[in-house]
Amino acid sequence: MAKRKTSELKPLNLNFKKVFDAERMQRLTSIATLRKYWAHIVGTMMAERSEPIAIEPQQDGSLGLIIAVDHPVIAQHIRLLHEDIRKACFTQCKLQGLSKVWTRVHAGAGIREERKVKKSNVICCSDLRRLAERLQDVEDKALRKQMFLAAAAQLIFYNA
Questions:
Q1: CA atoms within a 13 Å half-sphere pointing along the CA-CB vector of 51
Q2: Within 10 Å of residue 51's Cβ, how many Cβ atoms?
Q3: Quick one: pLDDT at residue 53?
Q4: Is residue 6 part of a domain?
């Protein structure tokens, strides 16, 4: 039985370079970099309501940035700040030749950061032991169980 040749891991961009020409590859890399630093370029509030979606070449050789927004008011705000956004794109991402900024309204546009919320549904044993000791005088077993579950739920709620 013939042994299969082991595969070699190669960077993804090597495969993309086979499909796209150098100019298109540069634009894809630039848009990925813009998306990564978008919150630094426009601020957190604007980043949650807008996102860069394309970089298009212009007839004069410059580049145009297309930004998706979730509301026309955000589009107006970006149009007013287009010069600042252009400068920030150069400062943050070294994107040269950007001359125009367009907006398109898309529902749900925006880059939202994943917020890590620490919720702990664990109660330490000592708290449960103290709770059981407080409820040991309740004689009705079903009532005692329900009181224990309610108090444990309160502990979870206040610890979260």
A1: 15
A2: 22
A3: 92
A4: no
Averaged pLDDT score across all residues of the chain: 84
Q: Which domain holds residue 46?
A: 13-105
pLDDT digits (tens, 9 = 90+) for 13-49: 666 667 777 778 888 888 888 999 999 999 888 999 9
Number of residues assigned to the chain: 160
Instruction: Indicate the pTM of the whole model.
Output: 0.60
Q: How far apart are CA 39 and CA 47, in angstroms?
A: 5
Task: Check residue 61 and give left, alpha or beta (phi > 0: left; psi -120 to 50: alpha).
Answer: left
State the CATH number of the domain containing residue 18.
3.30.300
Do residues 45 and 101 both lie within one domain? Answer: yes
Give the DSSP H/E element, type plus range, for residue 100: strand 98-105
